[in-house]
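Appendix B. Extra example for self-study. Work through it before the problem class; the solution is given directly after the inputs so you can check yourself.
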Amino acid sequence: EIVLTQSPDFHSVTPKDKVTITCRASQYIGDDLHWYQQKPEQPPKLLIKFASQSFSGVPSRFSGSRSGADFTLTINNLEAEDAATYYCHQSRSLPLTFGGGTKVEIK
Amino acid sequence: QVQLVESGGGLVKPGGSLRLSCAASGFSFSDYYMSWIRQAPGKGMELLSYISSSGSTKYYSDSVEGRFTISRDNAENSLSLEMNSLTAGDTAVYHCARFSGGGSDWYHNPFDIWGQGAVVTVSS
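Solution. Structure tokens for the complete assembly:
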């Protein structure tokens, strides 16, 4: 099973900050890594697919990148509405797995 | 409007059974692979099962294999999850979710549409 390790677990940030969340895969997964945003009492929403492709309708301040086994979700110019928990998900091989989540709190 | 709506959650005793349903609307349901994903309190997300567009291919995680059964009715645009031999460890929010695209292996795609979730509580 591929383990995805997200860091940090928690981010406390100020509006207009730049936020970086990392997801490290325990095995090679190519670009089969996706990012979701989940707000309280809501289902997850797809933000980034295949490491760096923005999903339709997602604000341009969200971007994704990959360096080897490390994947990064970057939120530029953070807005208050970005307060949420962010999850990565690998679709390289079964069982599909998710990272443990990174909670972003707005100060 | 593309939408998935779950129903059937509730409180059940250990060893009991429950059937979840997911009603799809706003898209051609029969063209997509569908899945069930759960979020347990304080735990991460877990893909439990998925089913191919025709219903001929099914996948189950080790944690539910033999206890849960996924099915779909393309004429009714509905997805179901029959859950048996439930334990406290099955307490979670259960989401149905759609795989976003095709290709030779649909599970390589992300989940682009999620339902709000059905709460399942297993307790005596």
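Self-check: Chain B touches chain A through 20 residues (CB under 8 Å). If your reasoning did not lead you there, revisit section 3.
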